[in-house]
Amino acid sequence: MSLYPDADYLTGAYQPKQFYPDEGVEVAFAGRSNAGKSSAINTIVNRRNFARVSKQPGRTQLINFFILRKAAGRKQPDDKSAEQRIVDLPGYGFAKVVESMQKHWRVLITAYFEERQSIAGVFVIVDIRRGLGDYDRQMLDWAASLGCPAHVLLTKADKLKRGAAKNTLLKVRRELGDAATVQLFSALKRDGEDEARKVLDAMLAGEPPGKNPVKES
């Protein structure tokens, strides 16, 4: 059963003028194509096929807005009773997508980060086997420029042995420092879903998601 009974698809935007009204609070989910972003969203919301999962990288061409909790009372950005959303950004970095589409995505995502006032946090989805890339770092830079927290999900952690996954986690945490919190995540095994959900809820409530532990237990 989903912990977000109001969760539902709102709209998709191919152009900035089609963005959902900029009120309430929202957390953006960004990641390289085929990093497991849609699967992560589905696992965190605990609803199958909530965000469309495709085996074809580069499939998502829109910025998709989903409601998590409906507004209750005022709709101020810092009001905990405001409408809460997650936003699924197009996957980036897929070489086989034609240049015109890659350019369109860059313009669309740039407009999103530069225009939206309701962004409360950013989840950056990273395939643990690939590590952080330039686009991932750009997403983290955008979050920093907005003064909002960022959280990195190292997805597909089940693809590595436990020791290797833990070493990668510590490496990424050392690299990012206080720029973002980082955790291991597996949609297949549902590992890390509670931790990710707590971070999401903290961002939506305007609360700091915490800091990376000094050592991984």
Could you describe the 3D structure shown?
This protein has one domain: 3-Layer(aba) Sandwich (Rossmann fold), CATH 3.40.50.300. 30% of the residues lie in helices and 20% in strands. It has helices at 37-45, 99-115, 134-146, 162-176, 193-204; strands spanning 8-13, 25-31, 63-69, 84-88, 119-127, 150-155, 181-184. The longest helix is centred in the middle third of the chain and has 17 residues, at 99-115. Residues 54-58 and 74-78 have low confidence and may be disordered.
Task: Explain briefly what this protein structure is.
Helix content is 30%, strand content 20%.
Q: Summarize the helix and strand pattern as letters.
A: EEHEEHEHEHEH
Question: What's the Cα radius of gyration?
Answer: 16 Å
Give unreliable regions as ranges: 54-58, 74-78
> In the CATH hierarchy, what is the superfamily?
P-loop containing nucleotide triphosphate hydrolases
Count of β-strands: 7
Strand adjacency order, main sheet: 1-3-4-2-5-6-7
CATH topology: Rossmann fold
* CATH hierarchy: architecture: 3-Layer(aba) Sandwich
Please give the largest β-sheet: 7 strands, mixed
Mean pLDDT: 87
Q: Which structural category fits the helices and strands?
A: alpha/beta
Q: Which percent band covers the strand fraction?
A: 15-25%
CATH class label: Alpha Beta
